[in-house]
Amino acid sequence: MTTAQISLDFARVDPPVEDMPIGTLAERTGCKVQTIRWYEQTGMLPPALRSAGNQRRYGTAHLHRLGFIRHARELGFPLEEIRDLLGLADAPDQPAADIRAAAASHRATVRSRIERLAALERELDRMIAAVDAGQTTDCRIIDALAGHAHGHALAADRGD
């Protein structure tokens, strides 16, 4: 697969859509209008054409590119990696090795997060099992949460 070529046609839609207002693009993609504007300002989404009244008008390519961004976000890719993937998608004659490497790296991050979440689940199970029907002042969950020594639990998710 490392020698395969990537070709993403962001303009492919049946039927093609042109002259779409930002509200329609937002509805069709499930993306907020402000987010679409932000993607445009940061260069992740190409600038929209403007109508005679200076309103943004989007086409099929915008629809597909925004769908790509949304799907990558749902998969947990950070914005910088999505920007890199878009750059690779914009150069369809490039080998797929870089895309494969980005996906493999992200998979490793996801696996690490899953391991940490499984450890968190075991800790919660232990705390729940330790609680009896006593008063809140005797609750081991409150004691465990009050202990600041456990701040490391998801530190990697925060980038610590």
Please give a quick description of this structure:
GO terms for molecular function: DNA binding; DNA-binding transcription factor activity. Residues 19-88 form the HTH merR-type domain. This protein is mainly alpha-helical and 160 residues long.
The largest sheet is: 3 strands, antiparallel
Approximately how much helix is present in the residues? 55-70%
CATH class of the largest domain: Mainly Alpha
Runs with pLDDT <50, length 5+?
A: 1-7
The succession of helices and strands, N to C, reads EHHEEHHHHH
Task: Work out the helix count.
Answer: 7
Instruction: Indicate the radius of gyration in whole angstroms.
Output: 23 Å
* CATH overall fold name of the largest domain: Multidrug-efflux Transporter Regulator, Chain: A, Domain 2
> What is the straight-line distance between the termini?
35 Å
Domains, number: 2
Overall strand count: 3
Mean pLDDT across the residues is: 80
Strands in their spatial order, largest beta sheet:
1-3-2
CATH architecture of the largest domain: Orthogonal Bundle
